[in-house]
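User: AB hydrolase-1 domain-containing protein, Cladophialophora psammophila CBS 110553:
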Amino acid sequence: MSSKPTLVFVPGAWHSADTWKKVSTILETEHQFKCIPVALPSTKSDPTATLLDDIEAVRSVVLAETTQGRDVVVVVHSYGGIPGQSAIRGFALPRGKHDTPFSPSPPAQNKTSGHVIGLIVMASGFVVPAKSFLDGLGGQPPPSWRLEPESGFAVIVADPRELFYHDLAEEEGKEWVSKLTKHSLKTLTEGGEHTYAGWMDVPVWYLATKDDKALPVEAQRMFVQMARDGGAHITLREINSSHSPMLSRPEETVQFILDATNAFLG
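Assistant: Predicted structure for AB hydrolase-1 domain-containing protein:
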């Protein structure tokens, strides 16, 4: 088994896997990690894509790595926390193998398989089982986006550059806005029965974004405290960035990932 885990990256709503390119390139070329960014079906302008489709997209990558004997760290951002955390089900170490107690997952591997050894969360929430993404927000979307049942998509109504990339240079911010995709409404309003609180099975490192205009840092801190109250083992760090630290603060984000991964291995 490789001494370094595979890093599986899950993007947020409206974002392609390219969101992770800056940090994955650094991690691959300078630190020799294997990085796999996941392209979520919900972000491919397909209104029929479901939350289960997104979960399975992540699970298929995790399964491919663990069955080859590689451990995995799942890295999630924003909406990606829902499918990413849910996909951990069955891949964590059995009870008794952790330094701290976690809820066990159903065993899914034999003794030669790898496992998910940690979860890295950025500017996101924590799965509440049996609830959809929108249920977790109290049943209503925030003012920055709206539901369009006619088209089958969730649509951003705020200025996306200001919402996601306000600390990027103007031209780069505009470039990322041009790369935003349509996001399937079904993944946000349905599928609660498929969710799973993977954050209870593995240690978690959380990166809170202090200048976030999409998910205020106060809300992020509240989510972390609620998860801790629920029994999660979470290390919290904060960064002076917008909602997209992997784009505006790639070097600092890479260091956070390295610190987290070393802690999971230690």
